[in-house]
Amino acid sequence: MPEEMVKELRGNGNLFQEPTGPALLAAAGAGRDWPNNRGIFCADSRKFFVWVNEEDHMRIISMEEGGDIVAIFTRWSKGIEKMRTVLEELDSGFQFDDHFG
Predict the structure, then answer these.
(1) Cα distance between residue 5 and residue 42, in whole Å
(2) pLDDT at position 71, please?
(3) Could you give the CA distance from residue 62 to residue 60 in angstroms, rounded to a whole number?
């Protein structure tokens, strides 16, 4: 990713920060293999993001200024469905457990 984009995304709070502090680094292991094994998908609109291996395995974010919660939720739902389709085309998918979800 170009450094200019890194600065833009970090400045807007849309790119995860390098983990610091003993709780994240030692106990949780969040800094292990930093920055390898992490990734981000950022839509051109800057309204939809997928973070991979930050603190969660995957964090899916849909946002925009204003109060149009229907548009935000619709974008989020379509993004998840598209990800499911792409993963299934790769003979993979989301993990699911009948008890835990």
Answers:
(1) 10
(2) 96
(3) 7
Query: Which residue ranges make up each domain of the chain?
Result: 3-89
CATH code of 3-89, in short, is 3.30.590.10
- Distance of alpha carbon 99 from alpha carbon 41, whole angstroms: 29
Tally of CB atoms within 10 A around 86:
11
Please write the tens of the pLDDT for every residue from 10-66: 767 777 666 666 655 555 555 565 566 777 888 889 899 888 877 677 889 899 999
Q: 77 vs 22, 35, 37, 49, 90, CA distance in Å?
A: 36, 28, 25, 12, 20
